[in-house]
Design brief:
Blueprint (H helix, E strand, L loop, with lengths): L5 E2 L3 E2 L18 H4 L1 H4 L6 H10 L9 E6 L26 E2 L13 H10 L16 E6 L9 H13 L4 E4 L9 H16 L3 E5 L18 E6 L17 E4 L21 E6 L7 E6 L2 H18 L8 H10 L20 H5 L8
Parallel strand pairs: 3-5, 3-6, 4-5, 6-7, 7-8, 8-9
Antiparallel strand pairs: 1-2, 10-11
Helix pairs in contact: 4-7, 5-6, 7-8
Amino acid sequence: MLTATSGAGTGAVARPLVPDDPGRSGSAGGWAELQWNFAGPYGVDAPDAWGNLVAAGAPGGQGVTVAVLDTGVAYPGGDESEPGSPDLDPDLLVPGYDFVGDDDDPFDRNGHGTHVASTIAERTGNGVGLTGLAYGVRLMPVRVLDNYGEGEPGAIARGVRYAVDHGAQVINLSLNFVSDPRPASVHDLADALAEAHDRGTLVVVGAGNRGEDSVAYPASAPDVLAVGATTDSGCLASYSDYGEGLDLVAPGGGGDAHADDPHCGLGRIGARVFQVTRAAAPYVGFDLAGYQGTSMAAPHVAATAALVIASGVLGEHPSPDAVADRLRATARDLGAPGPDPLYGWGLVNAAAATAPGAPHRP
């Protein structure tokens, strides 16, 4: 059970929370051995953030809706022939849509979307699997990528509009175009992203996995939050795109890029980001799977944004710009002092972002 103590006469006092999810070790609290991205030296400080949200009366981001636009989500009860993830809460799922198959069953048969969704909203403190950063949010699955992880700009645009129309306060896009698309082909998507911002929805996008000094589309679009990836040593990941327009970084796992930092260097291979998702073929069912990429980084920021909204530190109904500014102002500075092309404003810090009072950089 996740709890927080109260201070006599001073209101709720947050305490770090340590869930009992067993991870791979099978022992209570074993999640922390795998989830360096939440609780390690270069994680996002999930335990303190969880305590902040319990103290605020909105455990795990309760009351906020996050849409995951991806290969779908393997949600419980979503397919009679295939089981859903045992570590997603069916009571926190809201109706979504499949813009690939054009039906109301956005079930994931790839695993990518479920991994992303689990970083955001996996059940926490239930003695099963691993933990989710914003475990109390309502999760909206929207399928815009096919079973091979490929999708068209038009389907993504329709997914964005669907999420906004159905009350999503945060949208996660762990997807990019491999090469810069022709303006005509993404005109509708660009409009949809602008509309989402104007209607009060924050869109978070992975920066891309080309390792280039150029943020990939749609992370390069105006009015979205572009997220690069870091490793468990706090270095830019070797595959992560960077450069002008990068807002933040978050754990994505894998090997270090050489980033003019003495403790970073090409050749070092770090841990991946683990979550419960579909087991790799030929196995069936679900397993603790380690992925790497800016796809894994983006949901840390989307989840933290949801926690900020739920915490009330920005008042009721904060604008996307206010939430984005809070995330930037409370990020942990990495690399050169201040914002820079490699790390943007720094490593997202869920605890600092949700702490009451004026923002501070950890």
